[in-house]
Amino acid sequence: xxxxxxxxxLQVPDSTMRKHRNKVVATHDGRRRMSYAGKKRKxxxxxxxxxxxxxxxxxxxxxxxxxxxxxxxxxxxxILKNSELIRGKVVLDVGAGTGVLSIFCAQxxxxxxxxxxxxxxxxxxxxxxxxxxxxxxxxVIRGTVETVELPEKVEVIVSEWMGYALLHESMLNSVLxxxxxxxxxxxxxxxxxxxxxxxxISDPVVEDRLYFWYTVKEQYGVDMxxxxxxxxxxxxxxxxxxxxxxxxxxxxxxxxxxxxxxxSVTAEELRTVKGRFTCESFGSAAVNAFxxxxxxxxxxxxxxxxxxxSTSPFKPETHWKQAVLYLDSPVEVVQDTPVSGEVSMFPSxxxxxxxxxxxxxxxxxxxxxxxxxxxxxxxxxxQP
Length: 384
What we know:
- The protein is of the alpha+beta class.
- It is built from 9 helices and 20 strands.
- The protein has helices spanning about 45-55, 60-65, 70-80, 85, 100-105, 120-130, 170-180, 205-220, 225-235, and strands spanning about 5-10, 25, 30-35, 40, 90-95, 110-115, 140, 155-160, 185-190, 195-200, 240-245, 255-260, 275-280, 285-300, 305-310, 320-335, 340-345, 355-365, 370-375, 380.
- Strands 1, 2, 3, 10, 11, 12, 14, 15 and 16 form a 9-stranded antiparallel β-sheet that branches. Strands 7-6-5-8-9 form a 5-stranded parallel β-sheet, with helices on both faces. A 4-stranded antiparallel β-sheet has the order 13-17-18-19, with no helix packed on it.
- Helix 7 (about 170-180) links the parallel strand 8 (about 155-160) and strand 9 (about 185-190).
């Protein structure tokens, strides 16, 4: 089965936003929340795609991605470690951006690399390819992978397709299209597997922000405690907050709830990615959010070894950070309090490139709760 539902616990010891199609509101604690002050308007897929690709025409996003050492160095290492499988082969780079992964493949000995990129950054990729003297190997093709025509099948597909919470942007669908249309049987996909995890957390900064309104009277002689409920509605809303989670705020071993095998998963299966989770709290604390993060795995010839790119709070920070889902009210837990439930991830009805996350959860003896989270629609119509 390509999409495996899991209930497995794993033990495990952040600018503008990547794939940042929304305004970023920085809170006083430096955390970032996706938001757009506008009127929602559902756009057709053509306009959604235009917004999406146009957003990659600015240097800031590419600067952030290249500067993410964990991301870029892991891809470079994975490509070079697979040089025996890449040398003399034809490679397709899906969503090539500045072309850095294509150049890595050329350095690994690829015979030909088709760097497919839909936005205008492709013009810069051409210059970068020339500057690195690999224009005889790397061919930059402007267009979407769904519309371009390649002169031949490929033996390797490489792509950095991951969005916030893994599936935001839905770029994986393009990789799957390329796999089905252009990859030869038995071909190599980098990365080849993705896993998604969830864990309860206690974010003390949020509770401090809510309590702040009770301290105003002591500081300035004006009672503003009534602002606390308003602040709670603003902060603990249904937005997916993208921010770094401190490892000391994690309250249990993360639970893996879904796994995607890129060799076999289908676009239809991506319409709803879901799975159950069970974990137990480390000690006494207040659960006020869930943290969702992902890993992707690159196969390596030295089996059973593989290379993992992780966005875990326990690993060095990446530009993906973590997806934080705030609960309406905190729940107190003690050592070994069970936390369980089911996570469903699916595209927004307003924009297929935007991810929604629905969580059904039970904490301890409390009744089962449900909440749906989303990244606000960047195709909203700005208010005058």
